[in-house]
Structure formats: C-alpha cells, structure tokens
Write a structure and sequence with these properties.
The chain is mainly α. It has eight helices and no strands.
Amino acid sequence: METLNLFIRSIFIDNMVFAFFFGMCSYIAVSKSVKTAIGLGLAVTFVQTMTVPLNYLLNEYVLAPNALAEGVDLSFLSFIIFIAVIAAFVQLVEMIVEKFSPSLYNQLGIFLPLIAVNCAIMGGSLFMQQMVGAGEIRNVGESVVYGLGSGIGWWLAIVMMAAIRERLSYSHIPAALKGPGIAFIITGLMGIAFMIFSGIQL
C-alpha cells in the first residue's frame, strides 16, 4: 500500500510541472501538438524510470558516507554523477527515436537532446535522494516506482497542455497573451486544480 501511495503521490500530488514547475522549457515549447507531446512525454518517462533507480544504487553504494570505505564520503559528487547517468540515457533515447521514428525525431528537434538538462529529470533524482534520507524510499523497487510515477506525471501534464493548446487555436485570445503567456496562465490554473489531490491517502 505504501508503494501505491508513493506512485499516486509522484503523479498527482508531487507532479513535477504542477507542484514544482520543473521542466517548463520543453513543456511550453513542445506542447503545441498532442502527437509531439506524447512522444516527448514517453521519452521523459523512460529516462526518468531508468535513471532514478540507477542513481539510487549509485547514491546508496558509492556516494553515501562510508559506502565504499570507512570515512569516505563522496556525496559531494552527486550532481556530477547523476547528470552523467542522465546524459547517457538521453543519448540512448535519442538514437532509438531517430532509428524508429524519424518524423517524431524531426518534430522534437533540439528538445530531445535537451532532456539531458531537463530539470524535471534531475529533480527526480534529487528528490529521490531527499526521500531516501527521510525514509520514504527504502529500496530500489520503490525508486523505480517513484521514477515511473514522476515521469508519468510529467507526461500527463504535457499531453493535457497540448490538448488544451490545440483547442485554443480556434479561440479568440488577446494578442498580448498568445503563445507562452496563455500557456503559463493555463499551467497555473491546472496547478491549482491538481491541489485537489493533496489530501489523498490510500
């Protein structure tokens, strides 16, 4: 039940976009089309699901105080190690998408390699590290659940935004609000709407 709580919480309550506004660069830029948003969302979910448990293992067995040897504390290397793992997986995703879906690769453009510096991906690993310290994540299985949930949460956010923005193309929006302006307003309103999930306990 605690694992299910962690999964639901990472999707709805601690949503990377609506709770922390992480990954906004690619979220705003790529959410103009549902098809493109689905592709990028799946890529982010895959990278998040793979990198969070890998970084958990590195954090527990390499970086933590006394993990390698008594008196050795490599926790100051967390940022560098986490980014290296994320960059390696993003390169893998980029090669897979280019091989099997060239049209999606062209639509995503520069934002596919930019997953490597997407703060939602890095945020997932850093929040995982924080949750390990608080005792909320106790093993690699729970880190997989958290990585998958936070990835699905980001995917859900960008697909919802893309669906709304496609409908907005038929609406009369004031010139000053067109583009990112209305997108930020909608994101704020969706963030307020997602606050309804904050009291969920299973």
